[in-house]
Amino acid sequence: MSRGIPEPKLTAVDAMIDKLTGAIFLFQIVVVVVLGIAGNVWKDTEARKLWYVMYPIEKPWYELLIIPLRFELLCSIMIPISIKVSLDLVKGLYAKFIDWDELMYDLETKTPSHATNTAISEDLGQVEYILTDKTGTLTENKMVFKRCCISGTYYGNESGDALKDISLLDAISGNTPDVIRFLMIMAICNTVVPVKCSTGNICYKAQSQDEEALVNAANLLHMSLTNKNGSVLDVNFNGRMIQYEILDILEFTSDRKRMSVVVKDLQNGVILLLTKGADEVILPYASHGQQVRIFFDAVEQYAQLGLRTLCFGCRELEDDEYRNWASLFKEANSTLIDREWKLAEVCQKLERDLKIIGVTAIEDRLQEGVTETIETLRKAGINFWMLTGDKQSTAIQIALSCNFISPEPKGQLLMITGKTVDEVLQSIERILLTIRITTSEPKEVAFVVDGWALEIALRYHKSEFTSLAILSRTAICCRTTPSQKAQLVALLKSCDYRTLAIGDGGNDVRMIQHADIGVGISGREGLQAARAADYSIGKFRFLKRLILVHGRYSYNRTAFLSQYSFYKSLLICFIQILFSLISGMSGSSLFNSFSLMAYNVFYTSIPVLTSVLDKDLSENTVMQNPQILFYCQAGRILNPSTFAGWFFRSLFHAVVVFMITVHAYSDEKCELEELSMVVLSGCIWLQAFVVVIETNSFTLVQHLAIWGNLVGFYIINYILSAIPSVGMYTIMFRLCRQPSYWITLFLIVALGMGPVLAIKYFRYTYRPSKINTLQQEERFHGGRILTIEECESQENPLEKDLSPVTIVHNKNRNPVYEPLLSDSPTATRRSLGTSINFDSFQPIQPRFFSSHLRNLKSN
Question: Is the pTM of this model over 0.85?
Answer without folding.
Answer: no
